Structure formats: C-alpha cells, structure tokens
C-alpha cells in the first residue's frame, strides 16, 4: 500500500484534487468540473477518479477547502438559510440590525444594507443584565427563557444564537440559556456569543454568534454527508477542513464552530508560502496569487502567516480592502489577505474622462480574453501579455488551447488605442502597468500598512498568472528575490497538505497592565491551554505534537484597536514587562509613534493551540550544471520590457526540461503547462533542488 | 510635452492611495473613539498651488471645506514656512467647519521648494466652551463654543510648540486625549509627506506636478460630462430649520439650481439672515453639502479634487445662514444646517431628476454630548455621539432603517465600550415602530436609544432638528416621524426637551432619544400588501398604521391573513 495525503479544493469552475505520495513526494493531480449546487458531488467524482488511477492507494488524510459557508451567505448556493433565532438582553434585540449605524457607501442615495440574517420577529429578548465589571445587575428571568422553547418549536427554528451584553466577562447567563434550550429542544443548534467570540463590542460578537448559528446546520449536514460518501468509497481517513486561520480541524470540530471556516480556500496559498519558506529557510515571504479574475496577497513574517482578528463575510472589496459594513462581521482569526480585481481575464477600458482603467470586470472563462477566440471582444490583461510577447502567441496549456494574437491586437487597438491615441505597444504596456500598480497596492496593504518593509521579504509568485508579473512587482517594491514554485497552478494545494491543526482561544481581560495580577493571568493562560489540549485530543493529536503559543492583545488605554503581541511561558512580572516593551515597539513600527508613559491596557489573552502534522516531503532532484540543456530552449521571440521601452529578442525555455542548478540570465521567458515565468533583464533565474525557480535581482533589488 | 497617460494614471493611483493610507494611520493611532471608531476625519493632499488633489473618502461634511481651509489658513505664512513645520487652526471662519474640527497642514519640501501639502482635519470631542463636547445648543457667540485657535505654527522643526500646546490644552476638558489625537494627526501628515517625496524621487517634481494637474483636469472633464447629461433648466426649493437654539423662529434655506450646458449655478438668494443661535453654517459647510449632493447625483467614482469644483458656480450671500460672518456661533451649522442644506438641494433636484433622489432622510445628526466629573477617578469625562435615523424612501426600494444619512456617516460607539469608561448604563437601543414615512416605498425607521446616569450629576447637550418639522415624503409619500427627546426622572416624570438645549441631569435620570424616520416615496396605498404584512410582523409598522396609512388589515393571530381595504 502506498500512503497518500489528499487535498481537495473546490473552485468556481474546477474542483482540484492533489494527492501527495507520502514516501516519494510525488504528486498526482485530478481536475473535475465543479458542481456548484451540490459541491460534494464533484469531490466524490474526483476521489473516485483518484482511486481508479492508483491501484494500491491508502489515503491517510483528506484535507478539504470549501467555500460553501461564504457562498451560502452570499446566496450563491440554492440552499435556503436555516431558520435561525436570536436571544438578546431586553432592550437590545436590534443591535444585530443597527450594526455600526453606518452606510458602506457614502455617495449612494440608493444604498442598501446587507439583509439582516435574522428577521426581527425571530429576535427574542430576555430580562437579564450584566454590568461592565461582570456584575449581575438583573438576574436572568428563567421563566421567560422557558417560555421561548414552545415559540421556537412552533416557528420550526433550526438554530439559535444567544448574545447578551457583557457576556464576554461573565458567561453565566448565556450558558444557562444554552443549557435550558438544549434540554427542551435537543435537536436545535445553539451558538453562544461568549463561546464563539468572547470579546468586547456587542455588535461584532452578536454577528459572529449569528453567522455561526446559521452555518451550524448547513456545515454539519454537508460534512456528514460528505464523510458518509467518502466512507462508501472505502476511504477510512479522517476528513479535515481548512479554516480561515490557516489551520485545519476535523469534521466534528469544524461543524461545532463553522464560523471558523468561512474563508477556507484563500488561506491555503499563504500557508503554502509559509511551508515553502520554512523548507527553503526563508522566514519572511510575501505570498502573491494571481489567477483569472483576482489577485491575492498575504504575508508570512518570521515563518508565520500574518493573522487578523476580524473579517466581513460576504462583504464587498474596494481597492484591496473589505468595505466595512458591506457584509457580516465575524471575530475569528483570519489569514490576512488583500485582494484586487486583477487577473488574466480582467478587462481594460477607457472611461468617460479618457483615462485607461483595468477592472473590476472580468471576461471570466467564457468568453475569456480576446485571444482565446471564443468571442471575447474586450481587451484583457492576458491580451496585453500576448501583444507584449510574454505569453506564447500560438497556444497555451501545452498545446491544448489555441491562441489568436491578432484578436488581442484588434481588441486593444479598437477599445484603447483609438480612444486615447496610444500606440499598440504603449497601450498594452499601459494595461500591464496599471494592473501591476493595483497588485503592488495589495502587496503594500499586507506589508507596509502592517508595519513591515517589503525589502525584508521574498516574493512567492503563483497562480496561473502570478509568475508573469513577479519581476515588475518586485521592482516596484524593491524586493530582490522571487520564488516561482514548481507547479504554480497547484501551489495552494500544498498549503492544504502542510497545514497543522490549529485553534485560537480567547479570554477577555480589559485591565490596565499595572492592575494585572500576574498569577491570575498565568492561571487563565493555563486554563486556556487545558482547553486547547482537550480540543487537540479530540482530533487525535498526540501530546508530543502539541504546541501552545501565547499572545496578548494590548493597546494604550483609551484606544479602541488592539495589537496582538506574542508572550512567553510562564508569565512573570519580567515577561509581562518585556511583552509591553514589544507592544511599544510594534506600535512604533506600525503607527510611527510610541508613548512609554501612557498606561497600557491588556484587552485579551489569546492562546493558539497547534497540533503539528507530519509535513509533506518534496522530491529532491540531482544537481546539474549551470547551463540549461540545449533542448530546453524551444523558441526565440520578441518580448517587450518596460525599462528599455522596446522589444528584445528573447529565448523561450520549456520549464519541464530545466534541471536543478541551471541558471538563465534575463531577459528570458520560461513556459510550462499552466504558467509562464517572465525573467526581466537584470534578473537571473536558477532552478533549486526542489525544481523551484529562484529569480534574483542582479543589482540587489535597488 | 504632454505626459504619457499611463504615468498620469499610475501617479493618480499613488496619490489616492497615499490619502487613504494617511487615514489608516490617523485612525489607528488616534485615541478618542470619535476618530477611531467613528472616523470623523478627512485626509488630503494638495499641490504646490494649494489646490485639492486627492481626498480620501471619509466624511462628506469635510468635502468642500478642506480647500478653503488650506488656502485661507496658509495665507499669512506665505514664504514663511520651513521644512518640518505644521500649521494648526480651528477657527471655523478659516477652517470651514466648526471648532471641534482641528485642521493640521504640513508643507512638503523638496530641495527648499514646497512641492505639495498634506493636510487633515479631525473632530476632537471637546474644545472647551460652555458645554462638554463644545456643541452647546444655546450659544449666542462663537466664544461660548470653545477656544478659537487662529492658524499657528504648531509644529516647528518637527517638534510641537509646547507653549501653544499648553494654551490649547489648558482650555479643553480632556487634555491627554487631545494631545494624543493631535499626535495621530501629525503622523498622518508625515506619512502623506513621505509618500509624496517617494513620488518625487521616482518621477521628478515636474512630472509630479503635471500629473497632479492632469488628475484635476480629469475630474473636471468627468464632472462636466455628468452635468451635460442633466436636463437643462432651473428649479428651486426651500426647507427650514425648526429653531435656532435661542429662538423658536423657523429659519429658511432657499436654493435655486440652474443647469447649463456643462456647468451648474447654485444660488442661495432668499435664504434667511444669519441667526443668534449656533446653527449658522460657514461657507465651507455649505459647499460640502453641494459637493455631496453632486457626487450622489453624478458618478461617485469621480475622484474628489479641485477639478470637481470648477464647473460649479455658487452664490451664497454673505451674512446669511449659509455664509455667516463672525462672531456668529456655528457649532450646529456643521451637523444640522448641513443636513437641511442637503434636504433643500435634493428637493430642488427632485424637480429635474425625480427618479434619482430619495425622500427626506432623518435630516439631523442627533448630537448628544454629556459629561461631568467621574466619581471614581475625579477626572472630567465627556461623551459625544450622533445617532442614526431613517433614510428616505427611493423609487423601487424602501429607505434604509436606522442608518446615518447624507453629511455624516460616523459609527456608533459600542455600548460595552461606553459603559466600561463612562458612568452611564444603557437601557434600550432599538428600531422605532411607526416612524418610517408611509409610502409605496416606505421611509426607513428611526431609533430609540436610552441610558441612565450613574454619576451624581452631569451636563447634557442636545443639538438636533426635525422635532417640529418632519422629514418630507416625495410623490405622495408621507413624512417620517419627528424626533423626540426626554429626561425621565426616577419618579417617572417625563420632561420633553427641545431639540437644542443644555440641561443638568442627576443620578438615576434616564435620557431617552427617539430619532426621526425617513419620508416615504410614492402613494402608500399602492404599497405591496405583502410588504406591509412583513413590516407588521416585524413590529416596524403597527396594525393600526397598516390600516390607516396603507389601507391594509393585518391580523396578527392568523399570520397569513392580509386583506387590502378598498382603495380610497
């Protein structure tokens, strides 16, 4: 029997299965069309094909990335949202609807807020009140809680969220309500805000509990059904799900807190970047993923993906950032990602003020870029790359798809050149430049805006279109080194296979540092560790593979945003002092100032409980000479490079023929099945022992 | 030689992003909830000729005031600025808003020449004066509203002038927070400076200036194209402030809009003279209202800069409510008159663009400021907030419930944050039944919010509108409910407050606010009865109102039973 780790990623068009041979490090890839209405169908089909291809496969684990949670909330899946109710403190049932009282677009008289997930008549109030210090001001009226059960039953409610004021300090009332509901309505899913997001800010906490409650029935039945079908295929491996924080969780844990998997898919690319970084001994990596419709950026700092603690599910993105108020806020650990509409299929156009714009509309897969010859008339980023000679002018996907460069030229001439009087080449280069500046911006959002200097990072370029734009972006950000992994199109799948089990536990403290009792906080941390260990045990992680990371959310007293600072074990006054010192430093790095005499407030304790998994082994290849084999050069063609503003006769290499140790000086183009790497002049490419292309700036990046 | 359009586009993007990034720095490093949570600030970049080049989309009430502020505020410093200086002021007659908004401007030097300016404005929750929060509803002179700072070199050679800081901080109730927020404002300007200098390094001063010029020309072109799409002609409208804070007389705003081929003319002739109370709107505020409405009615993606201003000619007679002269008090002009200005403008535009405007929104910001001595710390506390209400109905869709409209978009402060810091306890925060103006498309409902004072005593200021006049409906839609403010004494006695007042309150007193709803759009009898039923089930419309206003009988016991009475 050969052991395989299997990852399955459901995309909009295709469902990708990647199987990693645990002994040899070899990879098997299966692509089947996605079945958006019944995502599990494509998963099973892919698994069946995989089993058909390998006679003696034993699957050791299945890791699954799914967008079902987000898509359900976006209404993209023909699933009706399960009927869900909300229980709140008396007088406050509308917090979930009022939100932060803002409109997410300022200059729109036709603005609409996202539909409140629970209609008002299913929002119930109970008499109770806890004060800001956790004191009980009004005891819970249990008779009222009791009387809710028949109403919930009559309404045929499937799930209930409970969110009371100040429950993050005192959970007593929420727990009691939870217990009473479970007892009288055992089939109902219950989501307590104090368990799902025990942090201050009532709207965000309530919203998290509500999103969780709605997803509980959906995710549970989806994962149960999927597991049942997988077992039917004779696969006994545990079914794990990728979470938004880049960790994985078993089916049972994910079903209990589905709010943790809403951004399941996009996190994988950053995790893969972190994994490759560790493998290659690189601690700081900027992860850049460019596909057909969007580009995504993430950062790995000190070998760890950067994490944010809030996200808006089903929200809109405007120039790289999520628009506050456009979706449903969720407090949870999320891999920090910035996104823009710049992909191969993104359309370029001239606006009424005669300016060249790129995006946000995409030609998608149908009709796709003009050069596909499927009827697309609008010029896209891909068409610009064809005109500039960067993409193969004859065919793509190893000859499977024909390319019509004349159609690219025609589209750009008609839609751009005629309208603003530019030469064809200027226009094509302009499209690329504008797309690049949008993409440079998202890389800046995850680095500069978070207080990191991009020059300290290596750029990991993947996705079908990423490697084509790497050099330009690196030059823009003064980055000296780029890695193009061996299979840029499958790279995210590695993330799924390399992710550890992970759970973040939070406890709100809300105390000034000089009033913090170190022993109490140490005891709180230990309690969180016990909880974390229990969660990991439930997922069959042996003790020796458990790791616990402690963090503190700190801020200057009076501020309302916290910085998460790592701290160590056991907590002593000295460690606390050092942690506060780190906080001042980070504040300085991000915001440009620190005030040592200001009182610092400890807002939350955070504990990340990690269950290490055995990391995939990559195939190492024997070393060859610097000179690439002769047959690696498949053609020569004219390729445009901005610096010289001219076309340069350039060698075209076939990546599959390159060997470890080979070195190519730019300008060059390296083509492979599903990606093209463009090596700019003043850059050199070399192939490492894993088959990655390493691009280095000859002048050190300046 | 004209610039390559691609270079222009790239520099445009970089400048816009720099302004956004300034906002992120300001927000993240500020202390007060007002700036952090409610984002009551604006960040901008100006070219060397002091023309607005890029403005991040933060808050509409600053839209038209930044350019005036920079041009007027720097006048006396021409030729006297040095690298490392920053100019600060809050004089409304210069800054174009009200005293709590502090403007901070940073000249950006390159080789001893000013190549650009970064500037921002942020609302500080207290600037001294007779009432905590500096928004006294009954001020009769600007001197009662707080400390007035004329343009001064607040930062010299990168260091804050301690003497000036001392004067400022001695006049405000929460000096520690003020200085922290000012530091955040400095940090934002420094970031803007750094970004502009990076562009200079890359492209050179000449190219940068040409690109800035083209950036403004681009906005102008797009604005003119949008105006040319409007029907030509002239239309006018009036709306009223219900009182001035010191007198119960209504005050009129009259506006006449003339659409020419590629140009607009906006005339406030016929508007009331400036008044004694604090509702006078300085010119900057009036301009902001105009630009806000135009942004909504044209294409909001047109970048805001000097170019947008060029096709619009404005006449606001001096000495009137919309362009007062000192020492008229102005605190409420920013927050209340600015809303009424928008109402008047939209009412006029409704006559030429009936399908593009909404019925009146709540038309007030419901400014509440409360403060006193905190019994636990012995220190002064001030809490300021604005409260959302109903949005007007629009063709095809109901008005949004409980949301800020038009000139403000500030967030609420979490109750859990307020109660942790201030001696008040909330009792209620909910949607207000029957407050949305009935219409084919209903106006959004307002809010009810109430809290109890836990400290021995405090001073409470209300600065609001629409408690006597109603947010109007359009095309047969009915008006939204008026606002109401009460103090409820521990013995249950209810005292109704006026919309502009400052009162003493005591421990155990309950403050209750009911904010106005939006006006309805279209005849309510034509409203889909299913929507009426949904509103009744959700408790937003009472069965009585359903029957009376919509002609729909909803039987709550049999939830499927909906019957439309014969149309009258």
Describe the SSE topology:
The complex is a heterodimer of chains A (702) and B (568).
Chain A: E1 2-10, E2 14-21, E3 27-33, H1 39-53, E4 57-65, H2 68-74, E5 84-89, H3 95-98, E6 123-126, E7 129-130, E8 136-138, H4 142-154, E9 159-163, H5 172-184, E10 189-192, H6 193-196, H7 202-232, E11 239-242, E12 248-250, H8 251-256, H9 267-280, E13 285-290, E14 295-301, E15 304-305, E16 307-313, E17 317-318, E18 321-322, E19 328-335, E20 337-340, E21 346-350, E22 356-362, H10 381-387, E23 395-396, E24 401-402, H11 405-420, H12 424-446, E25 458-462, H13 466-477, E26 481-484, H14 491-498, E27 501-512, H15 518-538, E28 546-556, E29 563-567, H16 573-591, E30 600-611, E31 633-641, E32 646-654, E33 663-665, E34 668-672, E35 675-679, E36 683-687, E37 693-697
Helix pairs in contact in A: 1-7, 4-5, 9-14, 10-11, 10-12, 12-13
Chain B: H1 5-29, H2 33-36, E1 41-47, E2 52-55, H3 65-73, E3 86-89, H4 92-95, E4 101-110, E5 113-123, E6 152-156, E7 159-160, H5 162-170, H6 175-203, H7 205-228, E8 233-241, E9 251-259, E10 264-267, H8 283-297, H9 306-309, E11 312-315, H10 331-349, E12 367-373, E13 380-385, H11 415-421, E14 424-431, E15 447-453, E16 457-463, E17 484-488, E18 494-496, E19 500-506, E20 510-514, H12 529-537, H13 543-550, E21 552-554, E22 562-564
Parallel strand pairs in B: 10-11
Antiparallel strand pairs in B: 1-2, 1-5, 3-4, 3-6, 4-5, 6-7, 8-9, 9-10, 12-13, 12-16, 14-15, 15-20, 16-19, 17-18, 17-20, 21-22
Helix pairs in contact in B: 1-6, 1-7, 3-8, 5-6, 6-7, 8-10
Any overview of this molecule?
The complex is a heterodimer of chains A (702) and B (568). Chain A is an alpha+beta fold. Chain A folds into four domains: 2-72 and 221-261, 2-Layer Sandwich (Nucleotidyltransferase, domain 5), CATH 3.30.420.40; 77-218, Dna Topoisomerase Vi A Subunit, Chain: A, domain 2 (3-Layer(aba) Sandwich); 267-342 and 435-498, Nucleotidyltransferase, domain 5, CATH 3.30.420; 501-611, Dna Ligase, domain 1 (2-Layer Sandwich). Helices cover 30% and strands 30% of the residues of chain A. In chain A, strands 13, 14, 15, 20, 25, 26, 33, 36 and 37 form a nine-stranded mixed sheet that branches. Chain A has a six-stranded mixed sheet with strand order 3-2-1-4-11-12, sandwiched between helices. In chain A, strand 28 and strand 29 (563-567) form a beta hairpin. The radius of gyration of chain A is 27 Å and the shape is globular. The two termini of chain A are 52 Å apart. The mean pLDDT of chain B is 93. Among the domains of chain B are: 5-218, no CATH class; 358-527, no CATH class. Chain B has a seven-stranded antiparallel sheet, with helices on both faces. The radius of gyration of chain B is 24 Å and the shape is globular. In chain B, helix 6 (175-203) crosses helix 7. Chain B is α+β, with helices and mostly antiparallel strands. Chain B contains 13 helices and 22 strands. Chain B has helices spanning 5-29, 33-36, 65-73, 92-95, 162-170, 175-203, 205-228, 283-297, 306-309, 331-349, 415-421, 529-537, 543-550, and strands spanning 41-47, 52-55, 86-89, 101-110, 113-123, 152-156, 159-160, 233-241, 251-259, 264-267, 312-315, 367-373, 380-385, 424-431, 447-453, 457-463, 484-488, 494-496, 500-506, 510-514, 552-554, 562-564.
């Amino acid at each position: 029997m050969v052991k395989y780790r299997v990852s399955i990623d459901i995309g909009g068009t295709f469902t990708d299965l990647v199987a990693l041979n645990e002994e040899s490090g070899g990879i098997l890839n299966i692509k089947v069309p996605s079945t958006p209405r019944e995502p599990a169908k494509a998963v099973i089909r892919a698994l069946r094909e995989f089993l058909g291809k390998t006679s003696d496969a034993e699957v050791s684990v299945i890791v699954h990335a799914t967008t079902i949670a987000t898509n359900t909330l976006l209404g993209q899946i023909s699933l009706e949202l399960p009927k869900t109710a909300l229980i709140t403190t008396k007088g406050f049932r509308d917090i979930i609807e009022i939100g932060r009282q803002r409109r997410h677009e300022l200059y729109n008289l036709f603005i609409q807020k996202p539909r409140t997930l629970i209609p008002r008549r299913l929002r119930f109030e109970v008499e109770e009140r806890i004060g800001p210090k956790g004191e009980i001001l009004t005891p819970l009226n249990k008779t009222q809680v009791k009387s809710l059960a028949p109403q919930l039953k009559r309404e045929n409610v499937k799930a209930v969220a409970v969110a009371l004021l100040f429950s993050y300090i005192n959970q007593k009332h929420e727990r009691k309500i939870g217990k009473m509901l479970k007892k009288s309505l055992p089939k109902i899913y219950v989501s307590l805000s104090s368990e799902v997001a025990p942090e201050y800010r009532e709207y965000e906490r309530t919203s998290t509990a509500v999103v969780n409650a709605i997803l509980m029935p959906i995710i549970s039945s989806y994962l149960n059904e999927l597991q049942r079908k997988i077992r039917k295929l004779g696969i006994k491996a545990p079914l794990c799900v990728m979470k938004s924080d880049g960790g994985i969780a078993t089916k049972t844990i994910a079903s209990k807190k589905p709010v943790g998997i809403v951004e399941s898919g996009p996190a994988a690319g950053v995790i893969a970047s972190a994994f490759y970084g560790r493998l290659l001994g690189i601690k700081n990596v900027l992860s850049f993923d460019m596909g057909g419709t969007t580009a995504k950026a993430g950062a790995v700092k000190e070998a760890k993906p950067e994490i944010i603690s809030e996200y808006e599910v089903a929200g809109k993105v405007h120039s790289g950032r999520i628009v506050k108020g456009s979706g449903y806020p969720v407090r949870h650990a999320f891999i920090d990602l910035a996104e823009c509409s710049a992909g191969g299929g993104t359309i370029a156009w001239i606006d009424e003020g005669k300016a060249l714009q790129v995006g946000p509309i995409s030609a998608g897969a149908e009709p796709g870029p003009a050069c596909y010859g499927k009827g697309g008339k609008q010029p896209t980023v891909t068409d610009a790359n064809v005109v500039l000679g960067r993409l193969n002018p004859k065919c793509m996907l190893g000859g499977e798809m024909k390319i019509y460069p004349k159609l690219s030229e025609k589209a750009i001439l008609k839609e751009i050149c005629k309208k603003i009087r530019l030469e064809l080449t200027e226009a094509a280069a302009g499209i690329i430049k504008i797309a690049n500046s949008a993409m440079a911006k998202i890389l800046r959002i995850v680095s500069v805006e978070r207080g990191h200097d991009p020059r300290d990072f290596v750029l990991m370029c993947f996705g079908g279109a990423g490697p084509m734009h790497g050099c330009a972006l690196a030059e823009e950000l003064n980055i000296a080194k780029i890695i193009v992994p061996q299979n840029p199109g499958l790279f995210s799948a590695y993330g799924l296979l390399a992710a550890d089990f992970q759970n973040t536990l939070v406890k709100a403290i809300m105390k000034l540092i000089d009033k913090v009792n170190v022993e109490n906080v140490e005891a709180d941390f230990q309690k969180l560790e016990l909880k974390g260990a229990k969660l990991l045990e439930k997922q069959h992680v042996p003790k020796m593979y458990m790791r616990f990371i402690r963090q503190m959310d700190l801020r200057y007293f009076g501020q309302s945003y916290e910085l998460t600072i790592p701290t160590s074990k056991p907590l002593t006054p000295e460690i606390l002092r050092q942690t506060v010192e780190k906080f001042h430093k980070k504040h300085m790095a991000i915001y440009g100032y620190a005030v040592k005499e200001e009182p610092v407030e400890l807002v939350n304790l955070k504990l990340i409980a990690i269950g290490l998994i055995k990391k995939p082994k990559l195939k190492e290849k024997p070393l060859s000479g610097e000179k690439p084999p002769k047959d690696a050069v498949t053609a020569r063609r004219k390729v445009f490079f901005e610096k010289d503003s001219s076309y340069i006769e350039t060698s075209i290499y076939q990546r599959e023929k390159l060997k470890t140790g080979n070195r190519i000086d730019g300008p060059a183009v390296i083509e492979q099945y599903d990606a093209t790497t463009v090596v700019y002049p003043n850059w050199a490419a070399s192939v490492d022992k894993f088959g990655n292309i390493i691009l280095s700036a000859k002048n050190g990046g300046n | 030689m004209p610039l390559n359009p691609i270079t222009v586009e790239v520099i445009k993007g970089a400048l816009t992003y720099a302004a956004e990034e300034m906002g992120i720095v300001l927000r993240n490093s500020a202390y007060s909830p007002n700036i952090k949570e409610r984002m009551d600030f604006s960040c901008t970049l100006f070219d060397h000729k002091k023309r607005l080049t890029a403005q991040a989309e933060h808050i509409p009430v600053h839209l038209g005031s930044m350019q005036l502020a920079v041009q007027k505020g720097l006048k006396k410093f021409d030729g006297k600025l040095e690298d490392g200086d920053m100019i600060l002021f809050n004089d409304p007659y210069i800054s174009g808003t009200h005293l709590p908004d502090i403007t901070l401007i940073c000249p950006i030097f390159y080789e001893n020449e000013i190549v650009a300016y970064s500037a921002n404005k942020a609302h500080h929750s207290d600037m001294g004066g007779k009432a905590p929060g500096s928004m006294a509803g009954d001020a009769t002179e600007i001197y009662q509203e707080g400390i007035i700072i004329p343009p001064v070199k607040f930062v010299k050679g990168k260091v804050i002038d301690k003497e000036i800081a001392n004067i400022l901080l001695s006049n405000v109730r929460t000096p520690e927070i003020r200085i922290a927020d000012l530091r955040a404002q400095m940090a934002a300007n420094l970031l803007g400076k750094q970004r502009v200098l990076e562009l200079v390094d890359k492209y050179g001063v000449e190219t940068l200036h040409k690109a800035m010029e083209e950036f403004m020309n681009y906005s102008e072109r797009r604005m003119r194209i949008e105006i040319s799409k409007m029907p030509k002609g002239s239309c006018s409208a009036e709306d009223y402030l219900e009182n001035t804070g010191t007198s119960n007389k209504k005050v009129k705003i009259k506006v006449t809009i003339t659409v020419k081929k590629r140009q607009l003319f906006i005339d406030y002739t016929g508007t009331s003279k400036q008044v004694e109370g604090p509702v006078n709107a300085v010119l900057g505020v009036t301009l902001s209202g105009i630009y806000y409405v135009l942004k909504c009615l044209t294409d909001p993606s047109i970048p805001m800069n000097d170019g947008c201003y060029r096709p619009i000619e404005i006449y606001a007679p001096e000495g009137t409510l919309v362009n007062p002269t000192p020492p008229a008090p102005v605190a409420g002009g920013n927050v209340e008159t600015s809303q009424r200005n928008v109402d008047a403008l939209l009412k006029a535009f409704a006559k030429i663009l009936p399908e593009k405007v909404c019925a009146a929104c709540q038309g007030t910001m419901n400014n509440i400021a409360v403060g006193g001595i905190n019994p636990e710390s012995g220190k002064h506390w001030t809490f300021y907030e604005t409260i959302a209400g109903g949005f007007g109905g629009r063709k095809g869709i109901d008005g949004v419930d409980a949301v800020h409209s038009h000139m403000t978009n500030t967030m609420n402060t979490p109750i859990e944050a307020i109660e942790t810091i201030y001696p008040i306890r909330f009792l209620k925060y909910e949607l207000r039944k029957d407050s949305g103006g009935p219409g084919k498309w209903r106006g959004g409902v307002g809010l009810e919010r109430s809290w109890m004072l836990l400290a021995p005593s405090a001073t409470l200021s209300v600065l609001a509108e629409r408690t006597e006049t109603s947010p109007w409906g359009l095309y047969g839609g009915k008006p939204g409910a008026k606002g109401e403010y009460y103090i409820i004494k521990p013995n249950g006695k209810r005292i109704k407050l006026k919309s502009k007042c400052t009162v003493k309150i005591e421990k155990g007193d309950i403050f209750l606010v009911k904010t106005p709803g939006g006006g309805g759009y279209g005849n309510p009898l034509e409203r889909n009865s299913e929507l009426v039923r949904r509103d009744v089930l959700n408790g937003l419309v009472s069965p009585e109102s359903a029957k009376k206003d919509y002609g729909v009988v909803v039987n709550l016991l049999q939830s499927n039973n909906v019957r439309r009475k014969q149309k009258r």
